[in-house]
Task: structure prediction
Amino acid sequence: MTLTPTVKRLLAVTASLAMALSLAACGTAKTGEEAPGHRITLTITADKGWDENSTPAIVHIKGLDEDNASVDFYHAVKADKDGNKGTSEVEVDKGRYDIDVISPVNKDGSAYELFDTGDATEVAISDEQDEVTVDCQMTFISADKVTDDMLKAIVTDTKTAVENGDSTLKGDNGKAILDKLDSNVNANPNASDETKEDASKADEEVNVDSEPADTTSKPADKPSDGNANSSSSNSGNSNSGNSGNSGSNSGSSSNTGNSGGSDKPSKPAHQHSWKQHTAQKWVSNMVTVPDYETQKVAVGTNFIFAEDGYVASNINDAKAHAKELIKAGYIGNYRTETIYEEKQVQVGSHQEDHGHNETYVDYEYCDCGARR
Result:
């Protein structure tokens, strides 16, 4: 199928958002001594909201093994039975690997921002350093603050992960993850119809029954509930761009040692540069407004004399004129006529909101895609 320029641009935007949402929030916490195998222990912690009803945190492990063969696979880490934390282990060959995490989606459509811990995202497994623990911290984003673009990126990344995942993302595990993704994304108030449909059709587009990523399974020492332990071998995916080196070199207290002979600098920890995003809200001010209508109102009386056409608007003037007519030999009779004027008369009232728009800061954001 040939992709149009518009589709290509949309895919590029989605990929950019996915990277922003999956910023490496992982720091190497410790290195084991004389471990029996080569493994990475993954510990995912959320401040709140992550439980058995959420999709798992999906860890993306990619890099080069000691033979310079590309390694690129995904591993799911579920929240444990107490919630807000999950631990799992993966066996890997000696080599250098990068760790990224795809945010879970909770039952109400909320998700997570993955903050940098200040340590490098790159880990190295060698004869001297063959066990690494990686801690990832996730900060809760309420459902109303999770944008459609964020959800769209999570859906896209999760489908890619299930397609290229190990046994934690295949078969019944993969079906359960895609079912929760569908339900939880549809619960978000900001999800567009397009994103909801994308999540709903994920199970049709992804082959959960395909062979898992080429891994060698081994029971984990400390698996969290429902997490299978997998080891990475050479997958058929593209090279991550990190080259392996020969020799050995020990790292700092927060970073693992390099498997190569030449030093390779750690990736600098991303520092958020927060900017204010403003919005407007209506400040109400209810007032009572009178209702008027035009009516004819009596404002006086005219006294009209038929005998000479004289008109007086005052009764005393009319009486005086009648006496003069009588003296002159006339009868002195007159008729009366009410004088009306049109006036605005209040007939009721109603309520009106004479409020105003007020600018306020609704959230802060970083150009990397993070929000708080």
